[in-house]
């Protein structure tokens, strides 16, 4: 691992928080609206010690990962089928395109109508968001496979199932991982948004309650924790991608 990368990446974050701390302490920024980072750190520590923050993170992550896993798996295999089988693509492409352009929160009342007001509707909405992203990326990845690879496999007797497993799948993996990173980030956004609209727990619910009660420290902690989770998930997927697709890792290291 290149040790320079995390250091360079941390510089703008540390600079931002240092300037923020200085401006808040010198009252150039209203400390009620912009509490110093040191105050936010103390508030976060208190929420960790009380168990409030871990409980909210657990609720948000459970919904995010469950919805993203279901939606990504369905989207991945659907996208491969759409990319490899023309009739399937013609049949499903209008539906995927329509869902992609539809604001996901507008579907929440319909999801609650069919699935109730519990977590099932929220997870279904998150899964739908991840499904669309993975399906689109998997279609593009499968269609970008060089025709010579397919022809060579067919000449050696490969059937359609073999083409999907041995040609389209390996060729699609790099772009699919890109889609997975986008899908996971979007799933986290949808989760927090849904929790703000209607949930009694989770980071989104905590942020909304903090805004209503003008508890700015808790509001900032919720936003910063959400952003940190997103960065960690993105970085974790990049590491996993490097392990599963070593040839792409070599190209990115240049």
List the helices and strands and how they pair.
Elements: H1 4-25, H2 37-50, H3 52-84, H4 86-100, H5 108-115, H6 119-143, H7 147-155, H8 160-198, H9 203-212, H10 216-244, H11 246-252
Helix pairs in contact: 2-10, 3-4, 3-6, 3-8, 3-9, 4-6, 5-6, 6-8, 8-9, 8-10, 9-10, 10-11
Architecture overview:
It is a single chain. This protein has 254 residues and is an all-alpha fold. Helices cover 83% and strands 0% of the residues. The protein has 11 helices and no strands. Helix 2 crosses helix 10. The longest helix is centred in the last third of the chain and has 39 residues. The protein is globular and about 75 Å long. It starts with a helix and ends with a helix.
Which properties best describe this structure?
254 residues, mainly alpha, 83% helix, globular
Indicate the overall shape.
Answer: globular
In quaternary terms, these chains amount to: single chain
Unreliable stretches: none
Helix content: over 70%
Q: Quick check: average pLDDT?
A: 84
Main β sheet profile: none
Strand content: under 5%
Distance between the termini: 13 Å
Radius of gyration: 22 Å
H/E element string?
A: HHHHHHHHHHH
């Amino acid at each position: 691992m290149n040790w320079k990368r995390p250091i360079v990446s941390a510089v703008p974050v540390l600079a931002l928080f240092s300037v923020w701390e200085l401006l808040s302490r010198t009252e150039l920024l209203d400390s009620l609206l912009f509490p110093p980072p040191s105050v936010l750190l103390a508030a976060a520590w208190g929420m960790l010690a009380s168990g409030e923050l871990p409980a909210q993170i657990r609720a948000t992550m459970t919904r995010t990962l469950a919805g993203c896993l279901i939606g990504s798996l369905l989207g991945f295999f659907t996208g491969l089928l759409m990319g490899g089988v023309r009739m399937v693509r013609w049949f499903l492409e209008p539906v995927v395109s329509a869902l992609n352009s539809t604001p996901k929160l507008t579907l929440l009342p319909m999801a609650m109508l069919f699935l109730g007001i519990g977590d099932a509707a929220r997870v279904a909405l998150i899964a739908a968001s991840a499904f669309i992203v993975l399906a689109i990326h998997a279609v593009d990845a499968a269609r970008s496979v060089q025709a010579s690879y397919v022809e060579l496999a067919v000449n050696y007797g490969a059937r359609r199932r073999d083409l999907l497993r041995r040609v389209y799948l390996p060729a699609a993996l790099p772009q699919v991982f890109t889609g997975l990173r986008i899908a996971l980030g979007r799933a986290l956004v949808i989760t927090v948004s849904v929790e703000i609209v209607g949930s009694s727990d989770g980071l989104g619910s905590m942020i909304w309650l903090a805004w209503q009660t003008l508890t700015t420290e808790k509001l900032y902690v919720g936003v910063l924790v959400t952003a940190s989770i997103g960065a960690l998930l993105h970085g974790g997927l990049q590491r996993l991608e490097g392990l599963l697709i070593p040839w792409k890792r070599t190209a990115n290291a240049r």
